[in-house]
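Incident log, support desk, overnight shift.

02:14 A customer reports that sequence design results differ from what the structure should imply. Their input is reproduced verbatim below. On-call engineer (initials T.W.) acknowledged and began investigating.
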């Protein structure tokens, strides 16, 4: 009886010990969850250490547990936008910026938010959306105005709207540090249409007259040689087969030759287009290097 009583007492003591330990753990966890400044400081530290994914998680934790802290939530939401931006997650950047603008329409940070949203949209190829974001940024933020306009110049370059790029460049005042870059871009835009180019029409016509001639015109010497030898071989083989009265084999070879001949024309036209794209891309790359670094952040 006594032994059984002692066993029950031991079980009760052990249960009390476990309960006390668990309550200590829970209290510690509750303290860590409910300590708003600590959560925010930890998230901010992760951001400055470039650990952007974990920073987003911690800032979202802050938003969840402290929705009544209006100022803190605004800063946390801002850091979420910046974290996605720094991590080059453009879709997430755009969506989080939309959320920030919706939730904090009077925030002093809206100018920067519109700016990074515009950068994300430019990287996504959503050029019309990027123009709108940069326009809003320029309208509401004096500090970001010139940078936003310069980005609109670059968007116009991506869209090959040379005249419009020049118009945006002219909006940057002379006293702005970005005026020099804008003028270099503006002057460069005036010469884009004078770059050497190859006519796709001529390339196709030359290829139709003589296989390989279109590629040679477009500066693709190796492709020209391949096209000429390939078509010449098939034509020669077809002629030989017909002369030897192997009409079926000659027809088969002729059938394939028609395909190679048409492909030669199509490829020559594509080579001319590629030549023009490469010339323009090299020119724009050199122009941007001459203008210097751009402010994407």
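02:41 Re-run completed on a clean worker. Output:
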């Amino acid at each position: 009886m006594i032994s059984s009583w002692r066993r029950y007492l031991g079980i009760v003591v052990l249960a009390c010990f476990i309960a006390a330990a668990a309550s200590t753990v829970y209290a510690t966890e509750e303290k860590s969850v409910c300590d708003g400044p600590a959560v925010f400081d930890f998230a901010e530290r992760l951001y400055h250490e470039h650990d952007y994914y974990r920073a987003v998680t911690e800032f979202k934790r802050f938003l969840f547990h402290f929705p009544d802290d209006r100022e803190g939530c605004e800063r946390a939401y801002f850091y979420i936008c910046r974290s996605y931006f720094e991590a080059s997650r453009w879709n997430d950047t755009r969506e989080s910026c939309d959320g920030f603008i919706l939730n904090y329409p009077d925030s002093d940070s809206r100018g920067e938010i519109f700016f990074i949203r515009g950068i994300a949209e430019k990287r996504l190829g959503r050029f019309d959306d990027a123009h709108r974001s940069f326009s809003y940024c320029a309208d509401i933020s004096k500090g970001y105005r010139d940078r936003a306009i310069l980005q609109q110049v670059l968007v116009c370059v991506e869209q090959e709207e040379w005249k419009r790029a020049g118009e945006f460049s002219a909006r940057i005042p002379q006293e702005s540090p970005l005026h020099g870059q804008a003028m270099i871009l503006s002057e460069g835009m005036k010469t884009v249409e004078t770059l050497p180019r190859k006519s796709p029409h001529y390339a196709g016509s030359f290829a139709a007259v003589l296989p390989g001639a279109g590629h040679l015109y477009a500066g693709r010497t190796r492709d020209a040689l391949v096209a000429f030898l390939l078509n010449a071989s098939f034509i020669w083989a077809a002629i030989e087969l017909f002369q030897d009265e192997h009409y079926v084999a000659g027809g088969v070879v002729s059938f394939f030759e028609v395909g190679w001949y048409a492909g030669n024309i199509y490829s020559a036209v594509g080579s001319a287009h590629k030549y023009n794209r490469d010339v323009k891309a090299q020119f724009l790359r050199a122009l941007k290097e001459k203008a210097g670094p751009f402010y994407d952040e």
